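G., the chain you wanted modeled:
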Amino acid sequence: MIKTIVFDIGNVLIGFDPDTYIKRFEFDPEKEAYLSKSIFGSAHWQDLDLGIKPFEQIRTEIAASVIPAYRDDALWVFDQSFLTISRKDYTIPWIRSLQARGLLTFYLSNYSRWMIDRSGDALDFLPLMHGGLFSCEVGLIKPDPKIFQVFLARYPQIVPEESVFLDDSPWNVEASLTLGFHGIIFENQEQAVRELEALL
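Predicted structure as tokens:
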């Protein structure tokens, strides 16, 4: 019997869209691809989510890692990267509908403190949930199984075999399965609701 739903946040409960964001700068395609990879597809972004380096240090490391001609633009993109985030209208009704059925709702997300502080009302659902864990709190990121173990230690009432984990990353879902969770790879809300209902 399923008792608990554990959500990823980015691209599940909120929008996270670096591709659309970076297009607003109207760089040529080569520069756009280079900057996107240098920021969002890099270890620097993971370091931000890990929360083990100050924002300014990561910013300095990005500046040092890109070609000099792109340095100013790389920092321009990075400094405004919170604009990749958007609120989802379905999130609060979905959480409330699950809770009305007696289900517990938690979150487990790779997310930086810097981004949390700049996400505005996109995270307005957090007070409604029964708890959760951000990667920046513990210096671990999914799909490392250790972050799931820390999460379960924090919330001993969660039994993986009685829980469903939803994430847009197949690797993160795969990691959850190794700990006993039921898993759903999130593609869109309609698909996720359909697969979740099949488990409830």
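DSSP finds eleven helices and seven strands in the chain.

Shout if anything looks off.
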